[in-house]
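Internal ticket #5521
Category: modeling
Description: The requester needs a full-assembly model to guide mutagenesis choices. All entity lines are attached below as received. Residue total reported by intake: 640.
Assigned to: D.W.
Attached entities:
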Amino acid sequence: MADTPPSIRRQSLPQGAGAVLQGQWTAAQLAEPPAWTAVQAELPALAQGRSAARVWDLRQIQRLDHTGAQLLWNSWGRRWPEELLTMPAQRTMLERVARFSVPLPAPEHRGLAHAWMLLGRKVLLVFAHLQGMLRLVGQLFLDTLRLLRAPRLGPWRDFSGHLYHIGATALPITALVGFLIGVVLAYLMAQQLRLFGADPYIVNLLGISVIRELGPVLAAILIAGRSGSTITAQIGVMRVTEELDAMRVLGIPRGYRLVLPRVLALAVAMPLISVWTTLAALLGGMISADLTMGVSPAYFVSALPDAVQASNLSLASGKSAVFGVMIALIGCHFGLRVKPNTESLGQGTTASVVVSITVVILVDAMFAVVFRNVGI
Amino acid sequence: MNRPGPMVEIEGLSSVFRSAGHEFVVHRDLSLRIEAGELLSIVGASGSGKTVLLRQILGLERPARGRVTVLGRPALQLGEPGAASRVGMLFQHGALFSAFSVLENIAFPLRELRTLPEDLVRDVALVKLQMVGLDPVQAHKMPADLSGGMVKRVALARALVMDPPLLLLDEPTAGLDPDSADDLCELLRSLHQELGLTVVMVTHDLDTIFELSTKVAVLAEQRVIACGAPREVMAVEHPFIRDFFQGERGRRAQTLLHDVPEDR
């Protein structure tokens, strides 16, 4: 059967001025722009007004669907025309459309009071998040005590799995990013230092900034984006598929089995990844310094211990461990708050990444203030 | 609306899944013909490839061998714009878009045509919403706030919004309480009659099979072992058919079996 476009024409029938419809009055055909324009050019004038048709003949329509019937019904002003010639099936369809054409109930009214309530809800939400985090930290503390009492019964398999997925698989990307940042940083510093003839100080500048600040923060931001989102999505999907409820019913504590291993894994992996990223950045800086200023790698390596005190390294590792714990806790917190629908899962994952990166930078600033006298 | 030829024609279909060096054959040389106006139930044991067969008809899977023709066109071409006017599918869990309200979900295929005016689209969606037995008040709800039975009804309304001649249902009554399942069966039967739909459904529910279907296709041993009116199929001598229809549940459900009028 060929797809014939819907058409309508004026014709005088024995009963009076008439409108004869032909073709396929279906959604797919009507939605073709040329057909729609053609129908709209004729239909309104024929349906209403002074030159309206008195008799409507639908019998030559090849196919009528509910969209076509609705269009006719709306054009008629939701009233039956004076005379209507149809096939039985068309009439039942039109009758059904006529019966079900009701005004759409208005959505709930949203006035100023609603906006005020919405603001209140937002404030309460902040408190709910803080409360949730506090509860999570408390639970983590209790779970850690439980682990210390019986270390042999700990969730070590989960722990090693997370260690691999969060730590080992992140090595290539962190190394690449660290290396490139090192190259760029050293190049930019070289431009400035050369003005003062202070070329050898590249080691001090690069060493202190990369080891103390950039390495740990860079690694933490990468891991927050990579593993923080994964943690939220994993736990969130468990909510959507009711696995969290199943765990509860089976009497398996989710803090002990879901949160604790992830926190432990990140607390262990994060300092290691931070050191790894730092090394890659230093390597990049070393190569860049050699190429742009002729500072040889041998000099770079020998001068580094004098330029950067060892306490910087322990400070960096310490704060990396804190970053790791924060990322894991925030990831778990948002994962556990996911509601059983996909939209909430997406929102939770986004929120988790944004919040954990912000928290990493905040915590880093706090460390910078508190330990300002250490290692410089 | 009378198209020459069958609604769905499957010839020599083979479906094969490969995973890690394993080959898992779901269908081997399967053939099935679905005529216009039929209400066909596909039954079979778990894992016999019923859902895969539906997905093949929808063009969601690629056949390893053989041909699947829907409405005279290869099934793989179905995903093109306007597909909703050819085939409607009710997924097992509804597959409603969770970001849209009920009315937006139903109106989505029409709205995507980008030509029809908004008020017409809204009216059509509202009519469909009431056709599946829901109150217009539900129009602004989000899918997450609906019960299982309502999700299925909304999904059915969405599948029907462009009045496709062919409707596929995957486990329409699964997960519904008996009352809702009966309501849905009644609704399907009336839609089938009023709209002249061809319906293909996958189901385990014997009540639904006997109450609704004009034809039953039994899937076993990677092919269709029997296809015909429910009484004919039940008479076929095969271990699966005997267990499926003549078991305790089968005999209880057969009381629902009524003779289908010949003039359909």
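Resolution: model delivered.
Comment from assignee: Residues 169 and 201 of chain B are 4 Å apart (CA to CA).
Ticket closed.
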